[in-house]
Specification:
With 605 residues, the chain is an alpha/beta fold. The strands form 8 sheets. Strands 4-3-5-6-8-7-14 form a 7-stranded mixed sheet, with helices on both faces. Strands 11-13-12-15-16 form a 5-stranded mixed sheet, with helices on both faces. 37% of the residues lie in helices and 19% in strands. It has 4 domains: 6-230, Thiamin diphosphate (ThDP)-binding fold, Pyr/PP domains (Rossmann fold); 235-345, 3-Layer(aba) Sandwich (Rossmann fold); 372-524, 3-Layer(aba) Sandwich (Rossmann fold), CATH 3.40.50.970; 533-597, Alpha-Beta Plaits. The protein has 22 helices and 27 strands.
Length: 605
């Protein structure tokens, strides 16, 4: 089997953001296999690459995986057969993929393989800001951290070639700031001859058990040590003789040029911008650092480069190394914060002290108008008394404000934590929730575990037919007979309900909560951003409005349901903004005063 020859235009300039640059770079580097379980900030790569694949007839195979572990294994398999492969996930997903990726360096690869990880200092689009740079040292894989969309594009072109040269995957980390900024990209001319794909058996490489694993681990350490001494990816700016050096990586490389204009001590320092972060090229850095009296390392999060530099050059450098003793290890380091810290360090006044400092409130997301999760959570809250209920929450769109679940941690934490809690909270009413994406990601095994351990639990799967928060990939629920699957797992009962008929769902939750065993309620409702035929019909047919003469201002639709399309006018009356309303009909169904008129009686149209 081989891929078609791909001819690309020479030296074309594009205006692209970081996600788009990675997609174009993958295409231009001849990627043949793309596996992902994406999340912000890297969820924009796959849709662009799919468009490019169709336009160029590149015959890229896509694996919209159910979790990062599966995606990593599939990508490794494609690479072992000789295909150039890109694996994409966000930082928390690297925890899930860590198991197979711990061994990929032992076995090595054949077709070039890039592991693109979206990082999120500041937790701008994540539940946490875990620093996953430490995995590079654990995996012993080269790590690159480009600082621009052009750098991400170049990393694709050069990274696949380097991966094949080393026989190792390349880690590429991209922050949200760099993924979402747009610049002009200079592409490169490339033509690819057909590749013949073939898996060459090599039991010594691929069966990593016992002494074989130990030997392959040793070979990997030797390979990465050799790489560190022969490859160095950094840029030096300014003279090399000053007593001060500043080392930056990632976002801080973007901020430093502005900062140094305000601090004379930094104007003529030796500035080292690292793009190849691991292994640290200590032999190449040593001549630049050995005569310094002070080294300042500016980096987001834990201080990965600081740790490596101190560990590897502990007995060699005479300089005082400043890092996390100056800069916080939490949050996204922004230019004003870095400037304030360095001004204090150099005993200089902050240059903008005279300007008013206004606190910027956190701008939280919320459910979209017509989101099925709105009616689903409303039904749960109406079914169970507030002081008694516990709602186990999961990751995904259902985790958005107004935060109606009682915890929000990670994938499958809804059913996972709830089944451990269930035996101890018998005086409370406990249900767990999770999306269809989470269910097929790992929730299926969690449900099976609850069945095997005879837990009493009601679990609701919110199925909007899309893995919506990661880029609207089609859900496995559109192809899998999930009712038969859950029956095979041995759940006590399975029931289906519509998210847009909360009264029916409310009764179902109340009924199942009284029973022993594991009960799964599959709550369906199309994502408001991918409307189905029902949603399109209702949007075209209905124009709902609130009759002020009937409205008793009970606030059930405004506060309890919290529909974003319902607001108040200057008179304090509730009204529906038809430019935002998706005509889901939930407000009409729950109104106790019959004050909301849809203009039609058939609610199940």
């Amino acid at each position: 089997m081989s891929n078609n020859k791909v001819q690309l235009q020479a030296q074309k300039v594009w205006a692209l953001n970081g996600n788009e640059a990675l997609a174009y770079g993958a295409l231009h580097a001849g990627v043949a296999y793309f596996a992902h379980y994406p999340g912000s900030p890297v969820n924009g790569i796959e849709p662009v690459l799919k468009q490019l694949n169709a336009q160029h007839a590149a015959q890229i195979t896509f694996n919209d995986a159910l979790n990062e572990h599966v995606a990593a294994c599939a990508a490794m398999g494609a690479s072992m057969a000789g295909a150039r492969t890109m694996l994409v996930m966000k930082h928390v997903g690297l925890n899930i993929a860590a198991d197979p990726l711990n061994y990929v360096g032992y076995a090595g690869i054949k077709g070039g393989m890039l592991i693109v990880v979206g990082t999120d200092p500041g937790a701008n689009s994540s539940t946490g800001e875990e620093d996953v740079h430490w995995y590079a040292k654990q995996f012993n894989l080269p790590l690159f951290e480009p600082t621009s969309p052009q750098g991400l594009y170049d990393c694709c072109i050069d990274g696949f070639a380097l991966s094949e040269e080393l026989g190792l995957p390349i880690l590429v980390f991209a922050t949200g700031l760099i993924c979402h900024q747009s610049t002009r990209i200079q592409t490169r001319q490339k033509a690819f001859a057909p590749r013949q794909y073939f898996f060459e058996k090599d039991r010594d490489r691929y069966i990593n058990v016992g002494q074989r694993a130990v030997q392959n681990h040793r070979l990997l350490l030797e390979k990465i040590a050799t790489y560190a001494n022969t490859h160095a990816f950094f840029e030096v700016t300014g003279p090399k003789s000053p007593p001060l050096a500043v080392i930056t990586r990632g976002n801080t490389s973007l901020h430093f040029p502005e900062i140094r204009t305000h601090i004379p001590q930094l104007a003529n320092c030796t500035w080292i911008q690292l793009t190849g972060v691991y292994p640290l090229p200590t032999m190449a850095l040593l001549p630049l650092l050995q005569d310094k009296t002070e080294i300042i390392i500016m980096e987001d999060q834990d201080g990965f480069v600081e740790y490596l530099l101190k560990m590897e050059l502990f007995n060699t450098l005479k300089a005082k190394i400043q890092g996390k003793n100056l800069f916080p290890a939490h949050g996204e380091l922004r230019v004003n914060e870095l400037l304030a810290i360095l001004c204090k360090h150099f005993e200089l006044p902050y240059p903008y002290e005279g300007l008013p400092s206004l606190p910027i409130p956190e701008r939280l997301g919320t459910f979209c108008e017509g989101c099925p999760h709105t009616g689903s959570y409303f039904a749960i809250e109406q079914a169970l008394p507030e002081q008694e209920r516990i709602i186990g929450g999961d990751i995904g769109c259902s985790s958005l404000p107004p935060f109606r679940a009682d915890w929000l941690l990670c994938m499958n934490a809804g059913v996972g934590l709830a089944q451990g809690m269930a035996p101890f909270v018998t005086s409370q009413k406990l249900v767990s929730t999770g999306g269809d994406g989470s269910f097929f990601h790992g929730g299926l095994l969690a449900v099976l575990n609850a069945v095997q351990n005879k837990v009493n639990l009601v679990h609701l799967v919110f199925d909007n037919k899309s893995v919506a928060m990661t880029g609207h990939q089609a859900s496995a629920s559109t192809q899998v007979a999930y009712a038969d699957l859950l029956e095979a797992l041995g759940v006590t009962s399975f029931a289906e309900a519509s998210a847009f008929h909360p009264k029916e769902l409310e009764a179902l939750v109340r009924e199942k909560e009284q029973l022993d065993g594991v009960h799964v309620i599959w709550v369906s409702g199309a994502c408001a951003r991918i409307p189905d035929a029902r949603a399109n019909f209702r949007r075209a047919t209905y124009a709902p409005q609130i009759d002020a003469s009937k409205c008793a201002s009970c606030t059930l639709c405004y506060e309890a349901l919290a529909c974003p399309a319902i607001d108040q006018n200057d008179l304090g009356q509730f009204q529906i903004d038809l430019s935002r309303c998706m005509r889901c009909g939930v407000c009409h169904e729950i109104c106790p005063n019959d004050a909301i008129d849809l203009g039609a009686k058939n609610m199940k149209a």
